[in-house]
Amino acid sequence: MATPATAPKRAPGRRSVTGTRGIVAAGFLLPALVLLGALVVYPIAYSVQRSFFDRSGDSFAGFANYVEIFTDDTILTAVKNNAVWVVVAPTVATALGLIFAVLTERVRWGTAFKLVVFMPMAISMLAAGIIFRLVYEQDPDRGVANAVWVGVHDTFAESAGYPRARPLPVHPLEAAGGGAFITEEPVRAGTPAELPLVGVAPADMPEDAKPATAPPPAADGRITGTVWLDFTRGGGGTPNTIDARELGLPGIEVEAVKDGKVVATATAAADGTFSLPAEADGARLRLPESNFRERYNGVDWLGPSFVTPAIIGSYVWMWAGFAMVLIAAGLAGLPRELLEAARVDGANEWQVFRRVTVPLLAPVLAVVLVTLMINVLKIFDLVFIIAPGSVQDDANVLALQLYRSSFGTDAHLGVGSAISVLLLLLVIPVMWFNIRRIRKETRR
């Protein structure tokens, strides 16, 4: 009976199947393994160990640091904000990237458009944070977002021009409630009404304001008058008198009120003059509160309510181009015959996009989405730079809280290490899903 042949033993120093000696292969791998251990494995192991010790690092604290993560209000806010980031930012960036890639596929200037959209990727997070800190400035004269918002608002809702204007006690106007002012005595035809105000800074005066003038008495029983800034730059001037260098207040609305009812209205011209019909004779003139409302200054983008969505907007601005480029590459590899077949069968462009293009792009969309999810779990720069110190707790995320807990005068390295371990645990499922999907695609 024949005995089975035994496998020949490899002679010392013999080459492997790949043609490489084992010692040589180990020599090439050793530096990489040393760097991997020093830069990845050791920091992870040390962070896990340190997370079980107290602030000083001398006493074992058990799971106390992990309990603090889920009981401290500031850290809980960071956890909630991270959840918002993971759900919203990758989804919006991927959706915009998909839209941009599909819409620019057939246009002649599509490459130029993609270049412009991708350009923010060349900017560092630090630079992008500085840019959007200026974009979200509350002052419409400095912040682009509020400049646009206020411009749109003022297009549909008239803005008051003199929010701080008021009469002095010696002036013939008195408070009428609600921020309005009214004349102390009724006005009569033939006697021009004089309505002086103060409290308007020269820099805030309208560009079309002209030197105030006293209108002549109207011959047809109309009521005429002037509303002006009773202030002479450099000093001088007489109260309640129109001086040569004093300006009219254009645009101010004047109402004639009789028995509590408005019988006539007029708007002051560039020199402050106005004219009311004869029905205003014997009425008291009122400057309604609409003349003195505070100007609309837009949205407080960096306030507690909007700071997180505002920062997510800056992130999408940066990363939508990244998503667009990857999706466009996947779109270029789609079999065109399937798209044309769907069109021949009578499908419109929306049906082709929803039922053919998107399913075929599903692997690419998954890669982009997962990549951005991993990226936003580590978001730090934008939040740290854009959010003012007064609302940083409201915009807090785990990476920022890790920095705040690990450095500074009140550092707690135990809590900081626990947060780093939590971030690692959050990233691992996403990475596992990505690796599993890549292996599945490789087997096809």
Question: Strand tally, please?
Answer: 8
| CATH topology value of the largest domain | MetI-like fold
Helix content range of the residues, please? 40-55%
What's the overall average pLDDT, rounded? 86
Q: Span from first to last CA?
A: 46 Å
Considering the chains and any ligands shown, give keywords for the structure.
three-stranded mixed sheet; 2 domains; 47% helix; five-stranded antiparallel sheet; alpha+beta; 13 helices; 444 residues
3D architecture notes:
The chain is of the alpha+beta class. The protein has two domains: 64-148 and 301-443, MetI-like fold (Orthogonal Bundle); 173-291, no CATH class. 47% of the residues lie in helices and 9% in strands. The protein has helices at residues 22-50, 64-69, 73-103, 110-118, 125-135, 144-156, 307-332, 336-344, 349-360, 362-377, 381-386, 398-406, 413-443; strands spanning 173-177, 180-183, 193-197, 223-229, 253-258, 261-267, 273-276, 284-287. It has a five-stranded antiparallel beta sheet with strand order 1-2-8-5-6, with no helix packed on it. The chain has a three-stranded mixed beta sheet with strand order 3-4-7, with no helix packed on it. Helix 3 (73-103) runs parallel beside helix 7 (307-332) and helix 8 runs antiparallel to helix 9 (349-360). The longest helix has 31 residues, at 73-103. The mean pLDDT is 86.
